């Protein structure tokens, strides 16, 4: 009896160790700018990235899908490879740098931030949706610091949706990427207008 129990426990451990337990999938995206890499010899306008905040259920590693107005699905095995706020901040920094801006996180700013533009993005919805595909909604703000105050230069709300090319999480991540690319294009256009006004 004891030998049978020992063999059964050993068989269970062996079966557990040999099964595929890594069914989790991790996703990340980056975005490219339309321009080629800017020259390093040209003086680039400085833009500080303040924060990219995600409010609500999407502020977590698991991917989110809205079923209807009052129900949300949180993926069990599909996660962002890093917190989405960090991923989007990195994508924003890379995009603005490739567009010719000297993009710097505000946390690394020196004392001379008053003469430069600062970007803040607040995201209210960052999820998949049964009928709309990937949705991205929120507000962005461009401001300039004046002594201890912030002077708002421009702001806008955004509401983007992008249908999925296929079923599945890979298509959802690609649609999220396309939404972020559209948002970055709009923000870059506004930064260029402000740059002309400041010069």
Automatic annotation (TrEMBL):
Cited InterPro entries: ABC_trans_aux
Matching Pfam families: ABC_trans_aux (PF03886)
Residues in ABC-type transport auxiliary lipoprotein component domain copies: 36-187
Domain of life of the native organism: Bacteria
N-terminal signal peptide: none
Entry-linked SUPFAM superfamilies: XCC0632-like
Protein name: ABC-type transport auxiliary lipoprotein component domain-containing protein
Naturally occurring in which organism (per UniProt): Pseudoalteromonas luteoviolacea DSM 6061
């Amino acid at each position: 009896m004891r030998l049978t129990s020992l063999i059964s426990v050993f068989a269970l451990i062996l079966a557990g160790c040999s099964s595929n337990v890594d069914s989790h999938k991790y996703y990340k995206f980056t975005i490219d700018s339309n321009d080629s890499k800017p020259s390093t010899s040209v003086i680039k306008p400085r833009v500080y990235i303040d924060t990219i905040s995600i409010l609500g259920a999407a502020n977590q590693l698991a991917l989110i899908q809205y079923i209807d107005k009052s129900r949300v699905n949180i993926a069990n095995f599909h996660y962002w490879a890093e917190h989405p706020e960090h991923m989007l901040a990195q994508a924003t920094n890379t995009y603005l740098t490739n567009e010719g801006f000297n993009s710097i996180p505000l946390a690394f700013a020196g004392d001379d931030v008053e003469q430069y533009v600062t970007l803040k993005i607040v995201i209210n919805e960052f999820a998949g949706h049964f009928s709309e595909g990937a949705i991205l909604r929120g507000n962005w703000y461009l401001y300039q610091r004046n002594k201890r105050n912030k002077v708002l230069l421009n702001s806008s709300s955004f509401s983007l949706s992008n249908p999925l090319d296929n079923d599945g999480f890979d298509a959802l991540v690609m649609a999220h990427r396309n939404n972020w690319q559209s948002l970055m294009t709009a923000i870059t256009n506004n930064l260029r207008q402000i740059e002309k006004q400041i010069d």
